[in-house]
Amino acid sequence: MKSNKYMRALFRDYGMVFVLLALCGLVSIATIADHHPSDVAAGRQLANQLSSQAGTEINVLIVAREVPSTDEAFALALKEQLQSNGANVLGVELGDPRSVRARLEDLGRQKIRVDYIATHNFSSNWGVLHTDKLKALGTTFPTLKKVRKVRPKSHRWPIFLTASNLRKVLDQNAPTAIVAIGMTLVIITAGIDLSVGSMVALASVITAITIRDLFGGASASGMDVTLAYGLTMLVCAGVGMLVGVFVTVFKVPPFVVTLGLMMVARGAAYFIADEASAIPLSSVAGNKLLYDSNLLGIQNQIPIMILLFVMAHVLMNHTAYGRYVYAVGGNVTSARLSGVPVVFVVISVYTICSLLSGFAGILETSHHQAGLMSAGNLLELKAIAAVVVGGTSLMGGEGKIFGTFIGVLILGVIENGLNTAGAHLGLEGVQKMGLEQVIYGALILVAVLIDQLKKKVVKPAAN
User: Would you say the pTM of this structure is higher than 0.90?
Assistant: First the structure.
Protein backbone atom coordinates (compact mmCIF):
# COMPACT_ATOMS: atom_id res chain seq x y z
CA MET A 1 0.00 0.00 0.00
CA LYS A 2 2.77 2.41 0.93
CA SER A 3 4.65 1.67 -2.31
CA ASN A 4 1.50 2.42 -4.32
CA LYS A 5 1.06 5.65 -2.40
CA TYR A 6 4.64 6.70 -3.13
CA MET A 7 4.27 5.79 -6.81
CA ARG A 8 1.12 7.91 -7.09
CA ALA A 9 2.90 10.81 -5.41
CA LEU A 10 5.88 10.38 -7.73
CA PHE A 11 3.77 10.48 -10.87
CA ARG A 12 1.63 13.31 -9.49
CA ASP A 13 4.58 15.55 -8.70
CA TYR A 14 7.09 14.47 -11.34
CA GLY A 15 5.03 12.76 -14.02
CA MET A 16 5.79 15.49 -16.56
CA VAL A 17 9.51 14.80 -16.14
CA PHE A 18 8.91 11.32 -17.54
CA VAL A 19 6.86 12.87 -20.35
CA LEU A 20 9.77 15.21 -21.11
CA LEU A 21 12.27 12.34 -21.17
CA ALA A 22 10.01 10.27 -23.43
CA LEU A 23 9.57 13.26 -25.75
CA CYS A 24 13.33 13.81 -25.87
CA GLY A 25 13.76 10.15 -26.80
CA LEU A 26 11.24 10.37 -29.63
CA VAL A 27 12.74 13.58 -31.01
CA SER A 28 16.22 12.08 -30.76
CA ILE A 29 15.18 9.06 -32.80
CA ALA A 30 13.44 11.27 -35.36
CA THR A 31 16.52 13.46 -35.79
CA ILE A 32 19.22 10.79 -36.19
CA ALA A 33 21.37 11.89 -39.10
CA ASP A 34 24.90 11.85 -40.45
CA HIS A 35 27.10 14.45 -38.78
CA HIS A 36 30.00 15.91 -40.70
CA PRO A 37 32.22 17.77 -38.22
CA SER A 38 33.92 20.89 -39.49
CA ASP A 39 34.96 22.72 -36.33
CA VAL A 40 38.36 23.38 -34.80
CA ALA A 41 38.43 19.99 -33.06
CA ALA A 42 37.65 18.26 -36.36
CA GLY A 43 40.54 20.09 -38.02
CA ARG A 44 43.02 18.92 -35.40
CA GLN A 45 41.65 15.38 -35.48
CA LEU A 46 41.96 15.21 -39.28
CA ALA A 47 45.57 16.44 -39.08
CA ASN A 48 46.50 13.77 -36.53
CA GLN A 49 44.69 11.09 -38.51
CA LEU A 50 46.51 12.05 -41.72
CA SER A 51 49.91 12.18 -40.01
CA SER A 52 49.45 8.78 -38.38
CA GLN A 53 48.36 7.13 -41.65
CA ALA A 54 50.70 8.81 -44.16
CA GLY A 55 53.60 9.95 -42.03
CA THR A 56 55.06 13.43 -41.98
CA GLU A 57 56.79 13.57 -45.37
CA ILE A 58 53.66 14.70 -47.17
CA ASN A 59 52.55 17.79 -49.06
CA VAL A 60 49.05 18.92 -48.14
CA LEU A 61 46.76 21.54 -49.67
CA ILE A 62 43.95 22.67 -47.36
CA VAL A 63 40.64 23.57 -48.99
CA ALA A 64 37.53 25.14 -47.43
CA ARG A 65 34.94 27.86 -47.95
CA GLU A 66 35.57 31.48 -47.06
CA VAL A 67 33.42 31.45 -43.90
CA PRO A 68 35.27 33.08 -40.95
CA SER A 69 33.24 31.63 -38.07
CA THR A 70 33.53 27.99 -39.19
CA ASP A 71 35.59 27.08 -42.26
CA GLU A 72 38.47 29.48 -41.67
CA ALA A 73 38.75 28.33 -38.05
CA PHE A 74 38.70 24.69 -39.20
CA ALA A 75 41.37 25.35 -41.85
CA LEU A 76 43.61 27.28 -39.44
CA ALA A 77 43.45 24.53 -36.80
CA LEU A 78 44.16 21.91 -39.47
CA LYS A 79 47.15 23.85 -40.77
CA GLU A 80 48.67 24.46 -37.34
CA GLN A 81 48.31 20.82 -36.30
CA LEU A 82 49.76 19.50 -39.59
CA GLN A 83 52.77 21.79 -39.29
CA SER A 84 53.17 20.81 -35.66
CA ASN A 85 53.21 17.17 -36.77
CA GLY A 86 55.92 17.92 -39.34
CA ALA A 87 53.86 17.84 -42.55
CA ASN A 88 54.41 20.39 -45.34
CA VAL A 89 51.34 22.57 -45.86
CA LEU A 90 51.35 23.95 -49.41
CA GLY A 91 48.72 26.52 -48.59
CA VAL A 92 45.14 27.18 -47.53
CA GLU A 93 42.65 27.77 -50.33
CA LEU A 94 39.50 29.44 -49.01
CA GLY A 95 37.09 30.02 -51.85
CA ASP A 96 34.96 28.09 -54.33
CA PRO A 97 35.44 25.25 -56.86
CA ARG A 98 36.90 27.57 -59.49
CA SER A 99 39.53 29.02 -57.16
CA VAL A 100 40.45 25.51 -55.98
CA ARG A 101 40.89 24.31 -59.56
CA ALA A 102 43.02 27.35 -60.38
CA ARG A 103 45.18 26.70 -57.31
CA LEU A 104 45.72 23.03 -58.27
CA GLU A 105 46.59 23.92 -61.85
CA ASP A 106 49.06 26.53 -60.62
CA LEU A 107 50.75 23.96 -58.37
CA GLY A 108 50.82 21.52 -61.28
CA ARG A 109 52.47 24.04 -63.60
CA GLN A 110 55.09 24.71 -60.91
CA LYS A 111 55.65 20.93 -60.72
CA ILE A 112 54.93 20.90 -57.00
CA ARG A 113 53.83 17.50 -55.75
CA VAL A 114 50.46 17.41 -53.97
CA ASP A 115 49.85 14.27 -51.92
CA TYR A 116 46.65 15.17 -50.12
CA ILE A 117 43.83 17.69 -50.30
CA ALA A 118 42.51 18.11 -46.74
CA THR A 119 39.00 19.50 -46.52
CA HIS A 120 35.61 18.93 -44.86
CA ASN A 121 32.43 17.24 -46.09
CA PHE A 122 30.84 20.24 -47.79
CA SER A 123 33.84 21.21 -49.90
CA SER A 124 34.70 17.58 -50.59
CA ASN A 125 31.53 17.37 -52.70
CA TRP A 126 32.66 20.10 -55.09
CA GLY A 127 33.01 18.79 -58.63
CA VAL A 128 36.67 19.70 -58.90
CA LEU A 129 37.43 17.34 -56.02
CA HIS A 130 35.57 14.34 -57.45
CA THR A 131 37.79 11.36 -58.16
CA ASP A 132 37.42 11.53 -61.94
CA LYS A 133 38.24 15.25 -62.03
CA LEU A 134 41.33 14.73 -59.88
CA LYS A 135 42.44 11.91 -62.21
CA ALA A 136 42.01 14.23 -65.20
CA LEU A 137 44.19 16.84 -63.50
CA GLY A 138 46.77 14.14 -62.76
CA THR A 139 46.90 13.24 -66.45
CA THR A 140 47.64 16.87 -67.35
CA PHE A 141 50.00 17.56 -64.44
CA PRO A 142 52.16 14.58 -63.36
CA THR A 143 52.79 16.02 -59.86
CA LEU A 144 49.03 15.80 -59.18
CA LYS A 145 48.77 12.18 -60.31
CA LYS A 146 48.69 10.64 -56.83
CA VAL A 147 46.69 13.35 -55.04
CA ARG A 148 44.04 12.04 -52.66
CA LYS A 149 41.19 13.76 -50.86
CA VAL A 150 40.73 13.40 -47.09
CA ARG A 151 38.08 14.75 -44.73
CA PRO A 152 37.03 14.26 -41.06
CA LYS A 153 35.17 11.06 -40.31
CA SER A 154 31.39 11.33 -40.26
CA HIS A 155 29.17 9.68 -37.68
CA ARG A 156 25.46 9.14 -37.01
CA TRP A 157 23.96 10.88 -34.00
CA PRO A 158 20.66 12.63 -33.13
CA ILE A 159 20.81 16.28 -34.13
CA PHE A 160 18.67 17.01 -31.09
CA LEU A 161 21.28 15.63 -28.67
CA THR A 162 24.16 17.83 -29.79
CA ALA A 163 25.45 20.31 -27.21
CA SER A 164 24.83 23.30 -29.48
CA ASN A 165 21.24 22.25 -30.11
CA LEU A 166 20.47 21.69 -26.42
CA ARG A 167 21.85 25.15 -25.66
CA LYS A 168 19.65 26.48 -28.46
CA VAL A 169 16.54 24.95 -26.84
CA LEU A 170 17.28 26.77 -23.58
CA ASP A 171 18.34 30.00 -25.26
CA GLN A 172 15.34 30.28 -27.58
CA ASN A 173 12.86 29.54 -24.80
CA ALA A 174 14.42 31.69 -22.06
CA PRO A 175 12.04 34.67 -22.62
CA THR A 176 9.02 32.34 -22.55
CA ALA A 177 10.33 30.69 -19.38
CA ILE A 178 10.83 34.02 -17.64
CA VAL A 179 7.30 35.15 -18.52
CA ALA A 180 5.93 31.75 -17.45
CA ILE A 181 7.31 32.28 -13.92
CA GLY A 182 5.05 35.30 -13.47
CA MET A 183 2.17 33.50 -15.18
CA THR A 184 2.50 30.64 -12.68
CA LEU A 185 1.98 33.00 -9.74
CA VAL A 186 -1.05 34.58 -11.42
CA ILE A 187 -2.68 31.25 -12.29
CA ILE A 188 -2.09 29.85 -8.79
CA THR A 189 -4.24 32.74 -7.50
CA ALA A 190 -6.95 31.57 -9.97
CA GLY A 191 -6.21 34.49 -12.29
CA ILE A 192 -4.95 34.78 -15.85
CA ASP A 193 -2.84 37.30 -17.76
CA LEU A 194 -3.40 37.46 -21.50
CA SER A 195 -1.32 40.60 -21.91
CA VAL A 196 2.18 39.17 -21.37
CA GLY A 197 3.07 38.90 -25.07
CA SER A 198 1.97 42.46 -25.76
CA MET A 199 3.87 43.67 -22.68
CA VAL A 200 7.03 42.07 -24.10
CA ALA A 201 6.54 44.07 -27.31
CA LEU A 202 5.78 47.29 -25.42
CA ALA A 203 8.85 46.84 -23.21
CA SER A 204 11.03 46.19 -26.26
CA VAL A 205 9.82 49.36 -28.00
CA ILE A 206 10.04 51.52 -24.86
CA THR A 207 13.60 50.33 -24.21
CA ALA A 208 14.69 51.16 -27.76
CA ILE A 209 12.94 54.57 -27.82
CA THR A 210 14.38 55.49 -24.42
CA ILE A 211 17.94 54.59 -25.41
CA ARG A 212 17.61 56.35 -28.77
CA ASP A 213 15.83 59.55 -27.73
CA LEU A 214 16.73 60.09 -24.06
CA PHE A 215 20.24 58.68 -23.77
CA GLY A 216 21.91 59.58 -27.05
CA GLY A 217 21.52 56.39 -29.07
CA ALA A 218 24.92 55.22 -30.30
CA SER A 219 26.72 57.34 -27.70
CA ALA A 220 24.76 55.82 -24.79
CA SER A 221 27.02 54.45 -22.06
CA GLY A 222 26.49 51.28 -20.09
CA MET A 223 24.95 53.30 -17.27
CA ASP A 224 22.60 55.02 -19.73
CA VAL A 225 21.42 51.66 -21.04
CA THR A 226 20.93 50.41 -17.47
CA LEU A 227 18.80 53.47 -16.69
CA ALA A 228 16.75 52.84 -19.83
CA TYR A 229 16.16 49.27 -18.66
CA GLY A 230 15.13 50.58 -15.23
CA LEU A 231 12.61 53.04 -16.73
CA THR A 232 11.11 50.25 -18.82
CA MET A 233 10.74 48.04 -15.75
CA LEU A 234 9.07 50.90 -13.83
CA VAL A 235 6.50 51.33 -16.62
CA CYS A 236 5.81 47.59 -16.63
CA ALA A 237 5.48 47.50 -12.84
CA GLY A 238 2.98 50.35 -12.99
CA VAL A 239 0.91 48.54 -15.60
CA GLY A 240 0.93 45.35 -13.52
CA MET A 241 -0.20 47.23 -10.41
CA LEU A 242 -3.01 48.80 -12.42
CA VAL A 243 -4.21 45.36 -13.52
CA GLY A 244 -4.16 44.20 -9.91
CA VAL A 245 -6.20 47.22 -8.82
CA PHE A 246 -8.83 46.53 -11.50
CA VAL A 247 -9.08 42.91 -10.36
CA THR A 248 -9.19 43.57 -6.58
CA VAL A 249 -10.74 46.99 -6.10
CA PHE A 250 -13.14 47.14 -9.07
CA LYS A 251 -13.77 43.36 -9.17
CA VAL A 252 -13.24 43.15 -12.95
CA PRO A 253 -12.52 39.55 -14.06
CA PRO A 254 -8.80 39.06 -14.84
CA PHE A 255 -9.67 37.66 -18.28
CA VAL A 256 -11.43 40.90 -19.26
CA VAL A 257 -8.78 43.23 -17.78
CA THR A 258 -5.83 41.49 -19.39
CA LEU A 259 -7.64 40.97 -22.71
CA GLY A 260 -8.15 44.74 -22.90
CA LEU A 261 -4.56 45.37 -21.82
CA MET A 262 -3.31 42.94 -24.47
CA MET A 263 -4.82 45.12 -27.19
CA VAL A 264 -3.83 48.40 -25.51
CA ALA A 265 -0.18 47.37 -25.01
CA ARG A 266 0.25 46.00 -28.55
CA GLY A 267 -1.43 49.10 -30.01
CA ALA A 268 0.76 51.36 -27.87
CA ALA A 269 3.87 49.57 -29.15
CA TYR A 270 2.80 50.26 -32.74
CA PHE A 271 1.88 53.87 -31.92
CA ILE A 272 5.14 54.66 -30.11
CA ALA A 273 7.24 53.03 -32.84
CA ASP A 274 5.57 55.37 -35.35
CA GLU A 275 5.19 52.88 -38.23
CA ALA A 276 8.74 51.55 -37.95
CA SER A 277 8.83 47.75 -37.96
CA ALA A 278 11.95 47.84 -35.78
CA ILE A 279 13.96 50.46 -33.93
CA PRO A 280 17.63 49.58 -34.56
CA LEU A 281 20.15 49.65 -31.72
CA SER A 282 22.99 47.76 -33.39
CA SER A 283 25.43 50.61 -32.71
CA VAL A 284 24.68 50.71 -28.97
CA ALA A 285 27.41 48.59 -27.40
CA GLY A 286 25.89 48.63 -23.90
CA ASN A 287 22.64 47.09 -25.13
CA LYS A 288 24.44 44.13 -26.70
CA LEU A 289 26.17 43.11 -23.48
CA LEU A 290 23.08 41.75 -21.71
CA TYR A 291 22.61 39.04 -24.34
CA ASP A 292 26.04 38.74 -25.98
CA SER A 293 28.05 38.23 -22.81
CA ASN A 294 28.26 34.64 -21.68
CA LEU A 295 29.12 32.40 -18.75
CA LEU A 296 31.44 29.50 -19.67
CA GLY A 297 30.33 29.80 -23.28
CA ILE A 298 26.62 29.78 -22.38
CA GLN A 299 24.52 32.76 -23.44
CA ASN A 300 23.78 35.11 -20.53
CA GLN A 301 20.01 34.73 -20.57
CA ILE A 302 20.22 30.99 -19.78
CA PRO A 303 21.86 31.41 -16.32
CA ILE A 304 19.59 34.44 -15.74
CA MET A 305 16.55 32.27 -16.47
CA ILE A 306 17.78 29.50 -14.15
CA LEU A 307 18.52 32.02 -11.38
CA LEU A 308 15.00 33.46 -11.66
CA PHE A 309 13.48 29.97 -11.45
CA VAL A 310 15.53 29.20 -8.32
CA MET A 311 14.45 32.50 -6.73
CA ALA A 312 10.81 31.85 -7.61
CA HIS A 313 11.04 28.31 -6.20
CA VAL A 314 12.42 29.62 -2.90
CA LEU A 315 9.78 32.39 -2.80
CA MET A 316 6.87 30.00 -3.37
CA ASN A 317 8.06 27.11 -1.18
CA HIS A 318 10.01 28.68 1.67
CA THR A 319 8.38 32.05 2.44
CA ALA A 320 5.14 33.27 3.98
CA TYR A 321 4.40 35.12 0.74
CA GLY A 322 4.35 31.85 -1.19
CA ARG A 323 1.90 30.36 1.30
CA TYR A 324 -0.29 33.44 0.89
CA VAL A 325 -0.36 33.00 -2.90
CA TYR A 326 -1.48 29.37 -2.57
CA ALA A 327 -4.05 30.33 0.06
CA VAL A 328 -5.62 33.02 -2.14
CA GLY A 329 -5.89 30.58 -5.03
CA GLY A 330 -7.26 27.77 -2.87
CA ASN A 331 -10.06 29.72 -1.22
CA VAL A 332 -10.00 33.50 -1.22
CA THR A 333 -12.65 33.82 1.48
CA SER A 334 -10.85 31.49 3.87
CA ALA A 335 -7.57 33.27 3.13
CA ARG A 336 -9.11 36.64 3.96
CA LEU A 337 -10.61 35.33 7.21
CA SER A 338 -7.20 33.84 8.10
CA GLY A 339 -5.56 37.25 7.89
CA VAL A 340 -3.95 36.87 4.48
CA PRO A 341 -3.56 40.31 2.80
CA VAL A 342 -5.53 39.23 -0.28
CA VAL A 343 -5.51 42.60 -2.06
CA PHE A 344 -1.74 42.96 -1.66
CA VAL A 345 -1.11 39.39 -2.85
CA VAL A 346 -3.25 39.72 -5.98
CA ILE A 347 -1.81 43.12 -6.93
CA SER A 348 1.73 41.85 -6.32
CA VAL A 349 1.40 38.73 -8.52
CA TYR A 350 0.18 40.80 -11.47
CA THR A 351 2.99 43.30 -10.83
CA ILE A 352 5.57 40.49 -10.78
CA CYS A 353 4.12 39.00 -13.95
CA SER A 354 4.26 42.34 -15.74
CA LEU A 355 7.81 42.98 -14.48
CA LEU A 356 9.02 39.64 -15.78
CA SER A 357 7.30 40.29 -19.12
CA GLY A 358 9.11 43.62 -19.28
CA PHE A 359 12.42 41.94 -18.51
CA ALA A 360 11.78 39.40 -21.26
CA GLY A 361 11.17 42.34 -23.62
CA ILE A 362 14.51 43.87 -22.60
CA LEU A 363 16.25 40.56 -23.30
CA GLU A 364 14.62 40.43 -26.75
CA THR A 365 15.83 43.98 -27.44
CA SER A 366 19.38 43.05 -26.43
CA HIS A 367 19.24 39.83 -28.45
CA HIS A 368 17.95 41.35 -31.69
CA GLN A 369 19.66 44.72 -31.07
CA ALA A 370 16.40 46.46 -31.91
CA GLY A 371 13.03 47.33 -30.44
CA LEU A 372 10.54 45.01 -32.11
CA MET A 373 6.79 45.58 -32.32
CA SER A 374 6.40 41.91 -33.21
CA ALA A 375 8.20 40.73 -30.06
CA GLY A 376 6.18 38.41 -27.85
CA ASN A 377 3.74 37.45 -30.60
CA LEU A 378 1.56 34.59 -29.23
CA LEU A 379 3.84 34.39 -26.19
CA GLU A 380 0.79 34.37 -23.91
CA LEU A 381 -0.29 31.08 -25.53
CA LYS A 382 3.11 29.48 -24.95
CA ALA A 383 3.38 30.79 -21.39
CA ILE A 384 -0.08 29.53 -20.40
CA ALA A 385 0.60 26.20 -22.12
CA ALA A 386 3.90 25.81 -20.25
CA VAL A 387 2.28 26.59 -16.88
CA VAL A 388 -0.70 24.29 -17.39
CA VAL A 389 1.35 21.45 -18.89
CA GLY A 390 3.66 21.81 -15.88
CA GLY A 391 0.78 20.88 -13.57
CA THR A 392 -0.56 24.23 -12.38
CA SER A 393 -4.35 24.14 -12.10
CA LEU A 394 -6.32 26.85 -13.91
CA MET A 395 -8.76 26.65 -10.98
CA GLY A 396 -6.03 28.01 -8.69
CA GLY A 397 -4.38 26.84 -5.50
CA GLU A 398 -2.11 24.22 -7.10
CA GLY A 399 1.12 24.39 -9.03
CA LYS A 400 4.89 24.26 -8.81
CA ILE A 401 7.61 26.46 -10.26
CA PHE A 402 9.61 23.34 -11.09
CA GLY A 403 6.62 22.02 -13.05
CA THR A 404 6.52 25.22 -15.08
CA PHE A 405 10.20 24.79 -15.93
CA ILE A 406 9.49 21.26 -17.17
CA GLY A 407 6.52 22.60 -19.12
CA VAL A 408 8.72 25.17 -20.86
CA LEU A 409 11.22 22.44 -21.76
CA ILE A 410 8.43 20.25 -23.18
CA LEU A 411 7.26 23.08 -25.45
CA GLY A 412 10.86 23.85 -26.38
CA VAL A 413 11.56 20.23 -27.30
CA ILE A 414 8.39 20.12 -29.43
CA GLU A 415 9.35 23.33 -31.26
CA ASN A 416 12.93 22.20 -31.75
CA GLY A 417 11.80 18.77 -32.90
CA LEU A 418 9.52 20.34 -35.50
CA ASN A 419 12.38 22.54 -36.69
CA THR A 420 14.92 19.73 -36.97
CA ALA A 421 12.60 16.96 -38.17
CA GLY A 422 10.21 19.20 -40.11
CA ALA A 423 12.27 18.98 -43.27
CA HIS A 424 11.75 15.22 -43.36
CA LEU A 425 8.00 15.76 -42.99
CA GLY A 426 7.91 18.46 -45.64
CA LEU A 427 6.81 21.13 -43.15
CA GLU A 428 8.07 24.65 -43.65
CA GLY A 429 7.11 28.23 -42.84
CA VAL A 430 3.42 28.77 -42.19
CA GLN A 431 2.63 25.05 -42.05
CA LYS A 432 5.16 24.43 -39.29
CA MET A 433 4.03 27.49 -37.33
CA GLY A 434 0.41 26.38 -37.67
CA LEU A 435 1.23 22.89 -36.42
CA GLU A 436 3.04 24.37 -33.42
CA GLN A 437 -0.07 26.36 -32.46
CA VAL A 438 -2.27 23.27 -32.89
CA ILE A 439 0.04 21.31 -30.57
CA TYR A 440 0.21 24.09 -27.94
CA GLY A 441 -3.58 24.47 -27.94
CA ALA A 442 -4.09 20.71 -27.74
CA LEU A 443 -1.65 20.48 -24.83
CA ILE A 444 -3.63 23.10 -22.91
CA LEU A 445 -6.90 21.21 -23.50
CA VAL A 446 -5.38 17.85 -22.52
CA ALA A 447 -3.71 19.31 -19.41
CA VAL A 448 -6.95 20.94 -18.26
CA LEU A 449 -8.86 17.71 -18.89
CA ILE A 450 -6.33 15.71 -16.86
CA ASP A 451 -6.57 18.30 -14.06
CA GLN A 452 -10.37 17.95 -13.96
CA LEU A 453 -10.24 14.15 -14.02
CA LYS A 454 -7.62 14.15 -11.30
CA LYS A 455 -9.88 16.24 -9.05
CA LYS A 456 -12.78 13.83 -9.57
CA VAL A 457 -10.60 10.82 -8.74
CA VAL A 458 -8.97 12.38 -5.69
CA LYS A 459 -12.20 13.53 -3.98
CA PRO A 460 -13.65 10.05 -3.31
CA ALA A 461 -10.27 8.82 -2.10
CA ALA A 462 -10.23 11.53 0.56
CA ASN A 463 -13.56 10.44 2.09
Answer: no
